[in-house]
């Protein structure tokens, strides 16, 4: 039986066609700038998102860190959501490795950072008491929810007026674009730099891309080397990522549809459900029943991440089809019958 794994959209297996694209890729030494497949991927993402240049890197964590280190100097500060991935789930890299101080901001429910809170957090210029506020970082999608398009424009204007650089952790940028019905460039265009994960809903095995100006990407490339992330014949993976961009963007709408279907089905069982704006939803399982649910589903070939509280995150992706989804709904129905 094929597993239905709802723990994350990072669990996808490369499709046969994607593997083939990797096998037949032209490669070279990327540290020398010689890998044609890496170069093609970088040029493609830069062009598609409306930037001068882009850099293919091993992970979203490294991509965000490189952006912060390229925008900020030692002793600078960045404004970031209190629960943002960059702040909370990346090992404190900005502070540890970049000597960049985070200024966390309590996020609104929709993932936006309220402008009045941002305003109050910007430090006075030229006063040596303070770190220099240098950058504003947002995350889109936020727990699977696309940031409102008009908020992006407002936050961008705010950053520009105060001379702040503006970075997007767009790990799931393409989910946001598909859900909003706009080209990814329309979201990316508000920012000075954007990080995109290829290994999440797009289904590539490894990697993220950081896009920005030529100067910014050159700085990021140097920091990548310093962090040990210069790589050689990475073209096989880059070609698989290229394949993902060719074939797996429009289909994200299917993941979103399945998440919405699952949300409706779980609600009809009397469970509290939120999210399902894109491919992520949260179901609240009554106290003490999470472990039992996980076990019952596992017996049906379904994996969920239980064990971190009553609210369980469920993620749809490339390897969850309609038959798999039906099995999940049946599994919940039987357990809660
Ligand atoms: C996954 C993720 C990252 C980091 O990507 P990795 O490749 O796992 O390092 C960054 N931001 C968000 C919002 C993510 O979901």
Automatic annotation (TrEMBL):
The organism's place on the tree of life at top rank: Bacteria
Residues where N6-(pyridoxal phosphate)lysine is found: 200
Assigned keywords, A-Z: Lyase, Pyridoxal phosphate
A molecular function GO annotation: L-allo-threonine aldolase activity
Residues of the Aromatic amino acid beta-eliminating lyase/threonine aldolase domain: 5-284
GO cellular component entries: cytosol
Cofactor(s) the protein requires to work: pyridoxal 5'-phosphate
GO annotation (BP), single: glycine biosynthetic process
Residue ranges that the Swiss-Prot or TrEMBL entry lists as coiled coil: none
Assembly, per entry: Homotetramer.
Family: Belongs to the threonine aldolase family.
Protein name listed in UniProt: Aromatic amino acid beta-eliminating lyase/threonine aldolase domain-containing protein
Source organism of this protein record: Arenimonas donghaensis DSM 18148 = HO3-R19
């Amino acid at each position: 039986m094929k597993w239905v794994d709802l723990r994350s959209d990072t669990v996808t297996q490369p499709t046969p066609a994607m593997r083939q694209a990797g096998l037949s890729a032209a490669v070279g030494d990327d540290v020398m700038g010689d890998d044609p497949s890496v170069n093609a991927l970088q040029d493609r993402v830069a062009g598609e998102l409306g930037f001068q240049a882009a850099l293919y890197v091993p992970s979203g964590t490294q991509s965000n860190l490189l952006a912060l280190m390229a925008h900020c100097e030692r002793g600078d500060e960045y404004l970031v959501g209190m629960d943002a991935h960059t702040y909370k789930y990346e090992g404190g890299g900005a502070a540890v490795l970049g000597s960049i101080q985070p200024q966390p901001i309590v996020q609104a429910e929709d993932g936006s950072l309220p402008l009045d809170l941002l305003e109050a957090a910007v430090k006075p210029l030229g006063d040596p008491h303070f770190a220099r506020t240098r950058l504003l970082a947002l995350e889109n999608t936020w727990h699977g929810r696309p940031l409102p398009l008009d908020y992006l424009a407002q936050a961008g204007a705010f950053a520009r007026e105060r001379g702040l650089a503006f970075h997007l952790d767009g790990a799931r940028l393409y989910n946001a674009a598909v859900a909003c019905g706009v080209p990814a460039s329309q979201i990316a265009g508000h920012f000075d730099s954007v990080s995109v994960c290829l290994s999440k809903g797009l289904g590539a095995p490894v990697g993220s891309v950081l896009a920005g100006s030529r100067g910014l990407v050159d700085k990021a490339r140097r920091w990548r080397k310093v962090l040990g992330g210069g790589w050689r014949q990475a073209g096989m993976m880059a070609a698989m990522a290229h394949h993902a961009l060719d074939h797996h963007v429009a289909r994200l709408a299917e993941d979103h549809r399945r998440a919405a279907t699952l949300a409706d089905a779980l609600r009809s069982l009397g469970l509290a459900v939120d999210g399902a704006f894109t491919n992520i939803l949260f179901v609240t399982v009554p106290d003490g029943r999470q472990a039992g649910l996980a076990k019952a589903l596992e017996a049906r070939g379904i994996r969920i991440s239980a064990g971190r509280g009553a609210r369980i995150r469920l993620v749809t992706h490339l390897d969850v089809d309609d038959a798999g989804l039906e099995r999940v709904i049946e599994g919940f129905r039987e357990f809660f019958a």
